[in-house]
Amino acid sequence: MQTRWFAGQVSQWWLWSGLNLALIAYFGYAFVAPPSSVKASLLPGETTHGHYQIELDCNACHLAADDPERHSAGNVMTDACNRCHANQLTLVNDTHPAKKFRDPSNADLLEILDAQDCLTCHREHVPEQTVSMGLTLPTDYCWHCHEDIGDARSSHAEMKFDSCATAGCHNYHDNRALYEKFLDVHYGEADHLVSAIVPSRNLKQQWIERHPDKSQLYIADADGPSNEPAGSTIETDWAETAHAAAGVNCGECHNEKKASGETSWNDRVAMSVCEQCHKSEVDSFQTGKHGMRLSIGMSPMLPSLARLPMHAGASHQELNCNACHEGHRFDTRHAAVEACQKCHADSHSLAYADSSHAQLWRSEMAGELPTGSGVSCATCHLPRLTGDDGIWVNHDQNAVLRPSETMAREVCGHCHGLEYALSALADPELAISCYDQPPHIRIRSLQMAHEYFEARRQKSSR
Amino acid sequence: MKRHNCPNISARPQRRRAKSMLSAFAVTATAVAMLCTTGCGEPAAASATPSAGITPQKFADGVHAVMMADRTVYATHVVTNLKKQSSPVTADEYWMDSTNAIPLPAQMFRMGAELVDENPEAGFTYSLRSEWPLNEQHKAKSEFETAALKYITANPGENYYGEEELGGNKYFVAVYPDRAVAEACWTCHNDHPDRAADYPEFGKDDVMGGVLVRVPIP
């Protein structure tokens, strides 16, 4: 009896020891494992919409700063923020850059609100206190430094202290469509502009100027393998579209150079190959939600990983260039609407087909309206921007939503007056319906800015 | 407000005097002697303390001389010159989003200060302040700054030196008069629509504000 009892004790001891060792091993492995679901057990809380795709790669944000003397929870995280966001903030002419607060005379203000540390306003893993734009502060934060704004701007004297960031008024970082002079310049514009057209892409012209040795290629010029499956349209797709027109042959994308210097044919074309000619597009793709995982070396984004509703049939569609630009036609018209609708099943995406903007797009596709007058998903979410080399397409489809007023300047302004655009963007119901109707409520900021400058102009003319 | 007790820095605001040849020679000789004792091939470690061979005041005076030279050149030979030529290019507060526009002298100065702020090697900060700022960012931000601005206005031609503690850190602060060196300065300020009723009418060489140089000290 005693022996059996002892044996039972021993087996129980082994059982519990084994369980504890298994738990220790599991969590120990989670610490050192590559980004994968095993790390989910270490997450202290849900991350924001901006970061949930990369939350299992802890080091993306928590890697220590290079300089151990500067290593603290604050600067490690701010360094991580800057790795992805510093350039974005520079491009939007950040209204509150950290350098603005470096003067020692700001010490008292920084004691109240440390504007040099991203984490002051944007903490992670705290979903219960996270609001729009990843803000984790009460929305009255402007008041701490600008409580006396009514003294300088009498129009602001009666405004509520937590109303500064109302759409159409102010943002903390990006005010390119909201600052006073811009509002005044665009005061009085018609709701619908006479010329309502988006800029034309001109990559082909840019390419021809840089490569005078290149000329149109035809099927007979194709240098790809001659073992295409029956019924394949690869060659005709290539010959009828931009790559053949620009003199880009099959091998320029498919020939892979090995370390030995030899080249070999590769059916799969890496994104780095696309980047050789489409650098701005590939770079910007990796700063948005479609490509951000790739930018830190993770596997491509899948619709099954998304928080937004997606079509079940598209669950395992890897997000890379070919996801929207299917080879070898790389059809930009397909990429502008059908490619989006193939995956996205949220209320905004589903409402698009019945919107007035979609009707314009269909009319353009039917040849009833001039090129550039239709409004596709890409028209708004992948705006055509003027760069140093000409017009390019920003493939960071989230950039115009950081915040949505960005869209007023980069997109809506091609067809609509600024007051109309900002008023529409301020209406959350219109956002769902793809801005199918005119805005019901008009924002006051343009009128206020105009009155301010009008008073200045009158003073100057005296 | 604390005052500096170091013999190299006056505890009271000083009258700026032209240096005699003798004192200039003495300073130069001292600097050469110190360089030689530290070894010509090994620069002495940078420090805000007088023991490094240059006082905070001397350092502040030097960097101020450079920044004011640049400021004067920009205001006189760029902004005023464009105005005299009736050029379509003008200095404009909203230059960044406008055609034919360049930054105002005050904006130019502030952008330079921000670039210095970004440089961890700089070892000092500087800023523009005024008792009559057209931009709120340039108003005095501490009791020290208020006193300094009042002093350099009441005593034209003099600088104001002292120490200040901000955010637990000590600084040597030098405040220099910012004068109307070019016609563009006083005409723009005198005609500005944002000027308040009590705003002064400026003329050539009037003190319109102050340039602050802050050097961290132990």
Automatic annotation (TrEMBL), chain A:
Its main location: other. One of its GO terms (cellular component) is outer membrane-bounded periplasmic space. One of its GO terms (biological process) is anaerobic electron transport chain. The chain crosses the membrane at residues 13-32. Its EC number is 1.7.2.2. Gene3D superfamilies: Cytochrome C3 (3.90.10.10), Flavocytochrome C3, Chain A (1.10.1130.10). The keyword Repeat does not apply. Residues 51-147, 242-344 form the Tetrahaem cytochrome domain. It is found in: Cell envelope. Keywords: Calcium, Electron transport, Heme, Iron, Membrane, Metal-binding, Oxidoreductase, Signal, Transmembrane, Transmembrane helix, Transport. Signal peptide: none annotated. It catalyses: 6 Fe(III)-[cytochrome c] + NH4(+) + 2 H2O = 6 Fe(II)-[cytochrome c] + nitrite + 8 H(+). Its cofactor is heme c. It is an enzyme of class 1 (oxidoreductase). It comes from the Bacteria. It holds the Pfam family Cytochrom_c3_2. GO terms for molecular function: heme binding; metal ion binding; nitrite reductase (cytochrome, ammonia-forming) activity. Belongs to the cytochrome c-552 family. This is nitrite reductase (cytochrome; ammonia-forming). It comes from Rubripirellula reticaptiva. The lineage of its organism: Bacteria, Pseudomonadati, Planctomycetota, Planctomycetia, Pirellulales.
TrEMBL record, chain B:
Residues 62-216 form the Tll0287-like domain. Keywords: Signal. Residues 1-33 form the signal peptide. The keyword Signal applies. This is Tll0287-like domain-containing protein. It comes from Rubripirellula reticaptiva.
